């Protein structure tokens, strides 16, 4: 068993899931993988089950009924990981928008002292490939909006490529994390900082998916936009110790 586990939430990722799993398992550092699949009708979960025969002690699958949102998938994954002895717990997309090679850099950032390491698209300019300009601008200015409302200094607040040291997830009351879309990523970073954890961004190159369909929607964007204000106001009435 590795001390590091990568949580990959999936919904209809049959084109990508086997390739991403094999790539992670080919890295020079050992990582386990937990796939949290929301009942993908395209058979993503079936592909993972077949691969478990090949990687019985490294590949794990949690299946949920229905599409319940990114945030709840990660919370489910965090709780599964905390019930085991993992020291480093990662978030990563299934579609290769996050380069699996960067898992090693994220882990090393936590090994040398960060409590939470973020793979950032915006720490050194704008490092995004194959996104239309309107989406680049929306994402970039959304992070600026988050900094303005919350006061945190994270450049890529919606980033979904993250390594947590175990004690961060043991400290944050996961049952109080309420957002389910990309606002979940903002809430986790904001909460970690409010608890006093050291959050470090490292530069990555984000490449938009080439296979499968994006899960972005207007509802998810709206949750993030208005949720940031709600989150900030709620923080005035919470104690972080």
Automatic annotation (TrEMBL):
Record GO biological process: glycolipid biosynthetic process
Bilayer-crossing regions: none
Annotated Gene3D superfamilies: Spore Coat Polysaccharide Biosynthesis Protein SpsA, Chain A
GO MF terms, alphabetically ordered: dolichyl-phosphate beta-D-mannosyltransferase activity
Family matches, as InterPro entries: DPM1-like, Glyco_trans_2-like, Nucleotide-diphossugar_trans
Keyword Transferase applies: yes
Transferase found in the keyword field: yes
One term under GO cellular component: membrane
Pfam families reported for this sequence: Glycos_transf_2
Recorded superkingdom: Bacteria
Domain Glycosyltransferase 2-like: residue ranges: 6-168
Keywords per UniProt: Glycosyltransferase, Transferase
Family matches, as SUPFAM superfamilies: Nucleotide-diphospho-sugar transferases (SSF53448)
Entry similarity comment: Belongs to the glycosyltransferase 2 family.
Protein name, entry field: Dolichol-phosphate mannosyltransferase
Organism this protein belongs to: Parapedobacter indicus
């Amino acid at each position: 068993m590795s001390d590091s586990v990568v949580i990959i939430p999936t919904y209809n990722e049959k084109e990508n899931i086997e390739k991403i799993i094999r790539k992670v398992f080919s890295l020079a550092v050992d990582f386990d993988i937990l796939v949290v699949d929301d009942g993908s009708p395209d058979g993503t979960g079936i592909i993972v089950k077949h691969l478990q025969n090949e990687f019985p002690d490294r590949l794990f699958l949690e299946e949920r009924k229905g599409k319940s949102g990114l945030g709840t998938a990660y919370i489910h994954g965090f709780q599964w990981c905390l019930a085991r002895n993992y020291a480093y717990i990662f978030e990563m997309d299934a579609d290769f928008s996050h380069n699996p090679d960067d898992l090693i850099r994220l882990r090393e950032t936590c090994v040398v002292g960060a409590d939470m390491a973020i793979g950032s698209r915006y720490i050194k300019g704008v490092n995004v490939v194959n996104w239309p300009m309107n989406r680049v601008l929306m994402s970039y200015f959304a992070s600026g909006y988050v900094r303005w409302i919350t006061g945190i200094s994270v450049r890529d607040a919606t980033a979904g490529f993250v390594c947590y040291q175990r004690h961060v997830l043991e400290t944050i009351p996961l049952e109080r994390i309420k957002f389910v879309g990309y606002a979940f990523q903002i809430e986790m970073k904001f909460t970690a900082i409010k608890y006093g954890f050291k959050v470090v961004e490292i530069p990555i190159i984000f490449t938009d998916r080439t296979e499968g369909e994006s899960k972005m929607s207007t509802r998810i964007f709206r949750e993030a936009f208005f949720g940031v204000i709600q989150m900030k106001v709620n923080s005035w009435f919470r104690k972080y110790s």
